[in-house]
Amino acid sequence: MARKRVKSNNETKAQFIATESIHDRILQHYNMTVHFNDTWRMFLKRMAIPVILMEILVVVRAERLIWSDTTAFAVNSVLTALATAGFINRIHNPILCFKIAFTLSIMHLIWYMYEIFTSNFRKEVAQNHLPFGAFYFTISWIADRYMMRSISLAEKANEEMQMLLKQKTH
């Protein structure tokens, strides 16, 4: 009888150690997920600068520094990039930044499609009117959705493991 108690105590200790090991791995995964998301968010935040510089280059290359279609298109792209950067940074009001970026991006893409379908000079449209801001917003939005999903899965796994550990100790 005493042997069975010793054996069962050893088994419960082994199970507890295995549970602790799994918990450590889950915490490590959670920390890695948070670190990866922060690194990716920093990269996306810095990508607004090349988008803005590309649009300035397009306006300068067009040699029409007065208000024109090319300038308006570039301004729309710059505003989209700035709103997207605000959304990614989670500054003052990220929902408002998202709504502004989404609206400007839709306007940008509709304008681009209109220019493609109505223009006889497809090369000119392709060179002067690429919707960099809309591309940046789309990539950032997809990445943000992925990051939010991965962090919620990591948090859920961590919470489940915490509940399991509480049940094991009681």
Descriptive labels:
170 residues; mainly alpha; 6 helices; 0% strand; membrane; transmembrane; transmembrane helix
In words, what does this structure look like?
- The two termini are about 25 Å apart.
- The protein is mostly helical and about 170 residues long.
- The chain is built from 6 helices and no strands.
- It is rod-shaped and about 80 Å long.
Secondary structure blueprint with pairings:
Blueprint: H1 2-46, H2 48-62, H3 69-89, H4 94-118, H5 122-128, H6 132-169
Helix pairs in contact: 1-3, 1-6, 2-3, 3-4, 3-6, 4-6
Quick gist of this model?
The chain has 170 residues and is mainly α.
Low-pLDDT segments: none
Global shape: rod-shaped
Please give the number of β-strands.
0
Tally of discrete structural domains: 1
Structural class: mainly alpha
Proportion of helical residues: over 70%
- Cα Rg: 26 Å
Distance between the termini: 24 Å
Number of helical stretches of at least 4 residues: 6
Global mean pLDDT: 80
Q: Spell out the helices and strands N to C.
A: HHHHHH
Strand content: under 5%
